[in-house]
Amino acid sequence: MAIYGVALLSACMFIGVWIGSTLGYALGLPSDVGGVGFAMVVLMLASEYADKKGWMTDAANSGIKFWSAMYIPIVVAMAMNQNVVAAIKGGPCAILAGIGAVVVMFALVRPLAAMVKPSEDWEG
């Protein structure tokens, strides 16, 4: 039943968009800055917290996995083209923020990969 978990997903989306809009307002931009990404982080944290507390049923976990799989490619793709013109008109600050995020993530690949222990069935 994919309907389970939709309430948590929608609450996380509202929280993420609110954080992104607040951040955009604080930076002087009339747009959402990373709301979808914040929503995904909030969803991961909230579902992990609820799972540890024993509040999540198997149906809710399955529903969240389903909607997360739908959420990532569709909503992120919609958000990507949403503010491209505004970001380009925003000047070098938006471009530098994007380049900086990519550089930081590339720099974090090796340390994050070192933290993960590969499973026995992995052939890499």
From TrEMBL:
Keywords: Membrane, Transmembrane, Transmembrane helix. The keyword Membrane applies. InterPro entries: Maln_transptMadL (IPR004690). The chain crosses the membrane at residues 7-27, 33-50, 62-80, 86-109. It comes from the Bacteria. The keyword Cytoplasm does not apply. This is Malonate transporter subunit MadL.
